Amino acid sequence: MASSNNEQDLLPDQTEGFKVGEKKTMDEYHQLDADDEAMTRYKQSLGLGGAGKDLSDPNDPRHCIILSLTMDSEGRPPVTIDLSAKGSETTLKDKPFKIKEGSKFSMTAKFKVQHEILSGLHYVQIVKRKGIRVSKDQEMIGSYAPNTDQTPFYTKKFAEEDAPSGMIARGHYTAVSTFVDDDKKRHLEFEWSFDIAKDW
Q1: pLDDT band, very low/low/confident/very high, at 185 (cuts 50, 70, 90)
Q2: Cβ contacts of residue 31 below 8 Å, gap of 6+?
Q3: CB atoms < 10 A from the CB of 123, how many?
Q4: Is 90 helix (H, G, I), strand (E, B) or coil?
Q5: What is the pTM of this model?
């Protein structure tokens, strides 16, 4: 996993003046301002409308389970990193995938939430080449209610990126990625690698 030098780097940048709200249980959210129409609409937008059967597994204490990350890029089939099985992320560093230099690509996370509302989930990624940090990327994924049988999982497509190009950019890269929420709880952290190449 990441060294202690990277611990702070793997947290999302904080917005000045932003304070994380008080944590509430699902029952507290259901009772909150029940007669306020605007609050009712807000709670429904978070999936708190009460529709559907809660899919939370009482034997699994995790609140957010990352199922997969998929890279989509024109000119090749999608590449999916399956993260659904516990421990599946441990071998990713040794299985690099190839990205064509200069290509445009986007990542999509597939995940599920259980037991309580997940507030302010972020994806943070540090990329290094030959041990030197070349980028830190982060994406706000959002806040989500536990999944139900009507919405068994969530997906979030990240902003499109451009792969670097040119002879100097080609080569092997390593990355450390983490999914972390507003409470700085890390739901998944893993190392992986990729190669920037002239072609797919």
Answers
A1: very high
A2: none
A3: 22
A4: helix
A5: 0.78
Nearest to 8 by CA among 126, 139, 175: 126
Predicted confidence (pLDDT) at residue 16 exceeds the cutoff of 80: no
* Assigned token pair, 77: 């089939």
pLDDT of residue 165: 92
Q: What DSSP designation does 151 have? A: B
Provide the residue type at 142 as one letter. G
DSSP tag of 65? E
Q: How big is the CA angle at 156 (ends 48 and 127), to the nearest 5 degrees? A: 135
Which one has a higher pLDDT value, 3 or 19?
A: 19
Q: What is the DSSP string of 32-64?
A: TTTT-HHHHHHHHHTT-S--S-B---TT---SE
Please list, residue by residue across 127-156, b when 16 or more beta carbons sit within 10 angstroms of its beta carbon and e when fewer do.
Answer: beeeeeeeeeebbebebbbbbbeebeebeb
Q: How far apart are CA 63 and CA 117, in angstroms?
A: 8
CA distances from 43 to 32, 50, 82, 99 (A): 9, 10, 31, 40
Over its C-alpha atoms, the chain yields an Rg (Å, rounded) of 19
